[in-house]
Design a protein that fits this description.
Structural class: mainly alpha
Strand order of the largest sheet: 1-2
Helix content: 40-55%
Number of helices: 8
Radius of gyration: 21 Å
Order of helices and strands: HHHHHHHHEE
Number of strands: 2
Largest sheet: 2 strands, antiparallel
Length: 195
Amino acid sequence: MDADNGSYVVAWAMVEAESKDSWIWFLELLAKDLNIEHEGRGWIFISDKQKDQMWACAKSTTLPYFQKEMKTMKELELDAYKWLTAKERPAKHWCRAYFNTVVDCDIMINNICESFNGWILEARGKSPVTMFEELRVKLMKRIANRKRKMEAYHGNICPKIREIVEKIKLKAATDCTPTFNGGDIAEIENIEGTN
């Protein structure tokens, strides 16, 4: 991700089929090429395999939100709930509420993958060399275009990030309930039940 929450492609590959073996092959080469160490600490990889209520659980930013979404998951789809709560799948690996704050990216949406796949659709039908050359040129132009836009931007917070901050402020306000004392002072209770 770039500083304005846009995708920044660092690698791509052509494989016979998307499988565990092809992902292992790709990620091992990527880790070697980028010198990724310490179990990938500081790196985030996304795929396009996540869906629906699982997203609500994964995107929860606090434990109370996470617990609320997991309760909904349990009511809607017990098998999915059991899968998510299996011991070999601890929430610290897939839920935002548990993520380390050292990682500076909180993007967890598969739209980025889908968007990229749509963006390269025309090139994907061509021979490998032609396809990779078209991708390389498209990505170079994309990087140059984004650089020009950001050089012309005047502000201390990137435009997309500013939008996100404003949405979070609104959501935080709607998750709070004020109780007024009869005057101009109020006690605020949040979703966690704390004041």
